[in-house]
Amino acid sequence: MSGTLRRAIRAAALASGLLALGPLAIAAPARDAPIAIAVIGPYTGGSADMGISMRQGVELATGEINRAGGVLGRRIVLVARDDEAHNERGGHIAREVTEVHPVTAGIGLINTGVALAAAPYFEQARIPLIVSVATGASIAQEFAPPEYAHNYVFRFSMSTAIEAPAIVAEALRRGYRRPGILTDATSYGLVGRGDLSDALVRAGVRPVSLEKFNIGDVDMTPQLRRARAAGADVLLTYGIGPELAAIARDRAALGWNVPLIGSWTLSMASFIKGAGPSGSGTMMTETFIDEAQTPAQAAFLKAFSARFRAPIASPMSAAQGYDSLRVLVAAIAQAGSTDGVKIRAALEQLREPVVGVVKTYNHPFSTTNHEAILASDILFGLVRDGRVVRATSPTAAAALRR
What CATH number has the domain bearing residue 29? Predict the structure, then answer.
């Protein structure tokens, strides 16, 4: 992402004295008290598909762990907070759960801007923050050594630093050479726009159009007309479901059959439902698709269906939320403590593999790497008959031939 937003976030933290103070004094809880973990995400608004699915994944893992006796002989309790996808509210919530009513760890966060606003509070309090969904490249790097002694931000979602090159590589592999970029104007969209542009330049290709839109926009016709006039043969996107659905619908209304390839948010239920038939053939990055390929994935999907009795609005968000909590609990068990410093050290030196939905996490972090998802973990999904299937599956191949 551009340095402007990073500097703004850091300047605000410094101005408030957040990063200038020493570690906060936090009273130790009773030895048999439940272990409180904050689950922060957008549970209302346009990002709610992702936030609710993430929270459900965390809830599912929590139930399983508590039924097995908890961790350190203590139950886990979740402290859910709706950040409404607003950066300022995300910062307020982070302050509440690290300073006012401290938790053992924070988990969740869907939107890049909210994650950047929340992270300084967890870093200052030395409380681990597990980012389950947000993908902005700098999120897990803001407090990395050597500038900071220790980094308390860990991530279980793909970084745009590996996602954007994957999108570009897929577009080029399919023969497209005149890409148009269309992103929203949030931190997420701007980070994605920059990373897509950089990846294209490295591949020797330049975008023929660069367009953006605002959250809540329902008419994308002007941007699409400019991209078509520029000769775009593919549209590369970063946004969230409702606005991406408007792009698909308006593209169809213009009679322009240009492909859409973009970030994983094209798999949101709000995109698939909102786009309707005009979304068919859309491709996106994924770490998990609602198709069981392993015993762990089959067990997860069965348990999710039994618990919530509804389709998963954002399968990847749910899977990454589930895995985040599982790995966090493994670190707490290894640390033998709910002290944030000890949990952070355990996360960086996990001794035992943790079988998750997305993958098995075998020493996923180190002191210099806080990214659990690798480029090799990325796969591509495709919208087919109102659902997302693997782009390499027979049904996907049939859709691509249409």
Answer: 3.40.50.2300
User: Would you list the DSSP string of 172-215?
Assistant: HHTT--SEEEEEESSHHHHHHHHHHHHHHHHTT---SEEEEE-T
How confident is the model at residue 71, as a pLDDT?
A: 98
Domain range for 262: 161-286+379-401
Provide the whole-model pTM. Answer: 0.87
Same domain, 11 and 97: yes
- One domain, residues 27 and 97: yes
* DSSP labels, 304-355: HHHHH-S--SSHHHHHHHHHHHHHHHHHHHHHTS--HHHHHHHHHT--S-EE
- Look at residue 388 and give its three-state secondary structure: strand
Query: Is 17 in the same domain as 120?
Result: yes
pLDDT tens digits for 144-190?
A: 999 999 999 999 999 999 999 999 999 999 999 999 999 999 989 99
Q: Are residues 258 and 188 in the same domain?
A: yes
24 within 8 A of 98, measured Cβ to Cβ: yes
